[in-house]
Amino acid sequence: MKVGVFGGCFNPVHHGHLRLAVEALEILGLDRVELVPTAIPPHKGQRGLLPFGLRCRLVQKALHGLPGLHCSLVEGGRPGPSYTGDTLEELARAMPGSRLFFLLGVPDLLTLPSWKDGLALTRKAHFVAVARQDMALETTREFVRSHWPEADETVYPGWMKSPGNMVCEWRLGPGSGNILLIRPPYLDISATMIRDYWSAGRDIRFFLPDLVLAELTRKRRLVERYWAKQEARSDVGQVGGVKARPPRGGCIHGR
Ligand code: ATP
User: Which residues pair with 16 in a beta bridge?
Assistant: First the structure.
């Protein structure tokens, strides 16, 4: 079985995430994609981060009735920061014989050496970099060649003509997963933008599924406690009594 692993804070999940999951299913011919909400992001403060249980429920609502897409609660069962290596190991144990494909943006792939276990994570899964621009092929190629000079490259012809295609694949060598580059269409939506709209009292319909919006609305009082403007609320989401960093873009899955 070929399984996509798509981690993120999903604070909240939105159509950009869902579209990418569907594209990955089709471009890579996956049997399923697991959306894996990060319980405790290792490199990002928790201020403004909705409780793990609520973020998971929002993902479950978003995936309701969508074949091939699943929500994995695997990170909820571990104490401490949610590291990708632990998550990949747990998923591999839960689905023996599966091939895992870990999805991430090209800019995140470039930071892989600084993650826990860094480049060795490619031994646990194939890494699928998601291109947002044509330049991504050059950037990713440079990254791969600098760390795996022996990697064998296959460029798929015609990828520039339209989005929704595989761009390139690098075979890193025996015992290692591959690095793949795909280019899906990109919906320019971010969870940060949705939270900003929400705090400003603006309409967030069509950024995310109706069922997610309904759940956010049902939990409005709780959501407001987390998403209220940071200056207005300094007491929510602090970790261990220490003020957490303010949120920034790009909360990838645990590293
Ligand atoms: P935030 O704005 O809070 O940083 P986000 O919308 O970027 O959140 P994350 O939870 O950080 O969402 O997303 C995790 C993963 O989803 C990352 O790999 C990120 O690259 C990807 N992603 C985020 N937004 C989109 C989008 N619009 N289209 C495709 N992938 C996306």
Answer: none
